[in-house]
């Protein structure tokens, strides 16, 4: 994707030195575009924990490069295993992180220590390229959904409701749910996006709105609680969200508040579609509500908010009453029964074990015990 006409990906190896890793500091968006240089695994871990880098697919790709950075200093078996374990603990809910690190370990364990650095960079690059192509295909498979809506209401905008950020800065490029939107916009469809603010970190109003604006997609930022009202009044044609983990039976873990959108969509007969790459599937889990670990973040994210003052300063202020406690679960789980369908790089399917196995028959073996 592009920022002011300049093409970017969300992670890349610095072409000047050929080994350090560059990312956009997403805690600075939308107020400033700042590029961070990561030189070791500790910086990578901190960038993931602090959400300087975020989005399930991107976290996996950056962690893969973090392992490559660590092996520059120590490429022994012990270091390989220890760094992978450390990086794997940075975020508990998004399965893409574990998937990427497992793929790196599978590629690197058989390689002699003296050749591991080059092999690690090659394996991390392969993960990044896989994500780019996967997200492009997700957009292709989701596009017919918006084309069908356009055919039913010629000349009128296609109103998409989204939650959190599912665009190119949440992946290596293209995005998941927003890949559908971008490809529809580029195909000339009159798409308009209702952008949930996505409290408490405001990934919608800060990141999704910034992305859509840079790409020229019409959009409107709304309060998180406005979606149901818009659905009641026929102002939402489709809900498109991403996910951090999808279970064997089609339950979907996503940013907190997604479950409420799904309930409102079901009550108003609005289709609720979830876009995901293969790296987000966790076929070892069946019941998402009971089995998926939900990350709890610092309560201050709920009690405070960060924004830009009228004179251009970026400041954090408290918004809750003094003395109030805060609770900050970062994700919730939407049961498969509320999901219209899943959009993957292999096509669309029902949110069910049968639907998933129809696209991914290699997972037909019974799920492992939790």
How are the secondary structure elements laid out?
Blueprint: E1 2-3, E2 6-7, E3 11-13, E4 21-24, E5 35-38, H1 41-49, H2 56-73, H3 77-88, H4 95-108, H5 116-152, E6 158-162, H6 177-186, E7 191-196, H7 203-215, E8 219-222, H8 227-232, E9 238-241, E10 245-247, E11 252-255, H9 258-267, E12 272-275, E13 281-282, H10 288-291, H11 300-303, E14 304-308, E15 314-318, E16 331-334, E17 341-344, E18 347-349, H12 353-359
Parallel strand pairs: 6-7, 6-9, 7-8, 9-12, 10-13, 12-17
Antiparallel strand pairs: 1-2, 3-4, 4-5, 10-11, 11-16, 14-15, 17-18
Helix pairs in contact: 1-2, 2-3, 2-4, 2-5, 3-4, 4-5, 5-6
Question: Can you characterise this structure?
Answer:
The chain has twelve helices and 18 strands. The relative contact order is 0.11. The chain is α/β, with parallel strands linked by helices and 370 residues long. The longest helix has 37 residues, at 116-152. The protein is 39% helix and 18% strand. The mean pLDDT is 95. It folds into two domains: 2-130, Four Helix Bundle (Hemerythrin (Met), subunit A), CATH 1.20.120; 141-363, 3-Layer(aba) Sandwich (Rossmann fold), CATH 3.40.50.10470. Helix 2 packs antiparallel against helix 5 (116-152) and helix 4 packs antiparallel against helix 5. The radius of gyration is 20 Å and the shape is globular. The strands form five sheets. The protein has a seven-stranded mixed beta sheet, with helices on both faces. The protein has a four-stranded mixed beta sheet with strand order 13-10-11-16, covered by helices on one side. Substrate binds at residues 54-56, 91, 203, 254-255. It catalyses: 5-(methylsulfanyl)-alpha-D-ribose 1-phosphate = 5-(methylsulfanyl)-D-ribulose 1-phosphate; 5-deoxy-alpha-D-ribose 1-phosphate = 5-deoxy-D-ribulose 1-phosphate.
């Amino acid at each position: 994707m592009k920022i002011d006409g300049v093409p970017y990906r969300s992670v890349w190896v610095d072409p000047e030195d050929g080994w350090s890793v560059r990312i956009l500091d997403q805690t600075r968006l939308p107020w400033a575009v700042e590029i961070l240089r990561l030189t070791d695994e500790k910086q990578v871990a901190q960038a993931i924990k602090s959400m300087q880098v975020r989005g399930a697919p991107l976290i996996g790709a950056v962690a893969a490069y973090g392992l490559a950075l660590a092996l520059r200093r120590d490429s022994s078996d012990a270091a390989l295993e220890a760094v992978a374990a450390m990086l794997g603990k940075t975020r508990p809910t998004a399965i893409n992180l574990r998937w990427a690190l497992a793929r790196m370990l599978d590629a690197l364990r058989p390689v002699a220590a003296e050749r591991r650095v080059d092999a690690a960079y090659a394996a991390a690059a392969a993960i990044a390229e896989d994500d780019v192509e996967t997200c492009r295909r997700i957009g292709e498979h989701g596009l017919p959904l918006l084309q069908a809506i356009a055919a039913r209401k010629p000349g009128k905008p296609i109103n998409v409701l989204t939650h959190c950020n599912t665009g190119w800065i949440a992946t290596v490029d293209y995005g998941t749910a927003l890949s559908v939107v971008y490809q529809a916009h580029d195909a000339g469809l009159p798409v308009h996006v209702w952008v949930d603010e996505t409290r408490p970190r405001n990934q919608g109003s800060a990141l999704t709105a910034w992305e859509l604006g840079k790409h020229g997609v019409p959009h409107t930022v709304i309060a998180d609680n406005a979606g149901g009202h818009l659905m009641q009044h026929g102002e939402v044609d489709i809900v498109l969200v991403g996910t951090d983990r999808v279970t064997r039976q089609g339950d979907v873990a996503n940013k907190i508040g997604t479950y409420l959108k799904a309930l409102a969509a079901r009550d108003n007969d609005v289709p609720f579609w979830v876009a995901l790459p293969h790296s987000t599937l966790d076929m070892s889990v069946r019941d998402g509500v009971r089995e998926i670990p939900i990350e709890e973040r610092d309560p201050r994210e709920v009690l405070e908010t960060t924004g830009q003052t009228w004179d251009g300063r970026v400041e954090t202020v408290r918004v809750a009453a003094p003395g109030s406690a805060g609770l900050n679960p970062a994700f919730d789980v939407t049961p498969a029964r509320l999901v219209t369908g899943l959009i993957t790089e292999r096509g669309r399917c029902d949110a069910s074990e049968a639907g998933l196995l129809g696209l991914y028959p290699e997972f037909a073996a019974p799920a492992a015990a939790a």
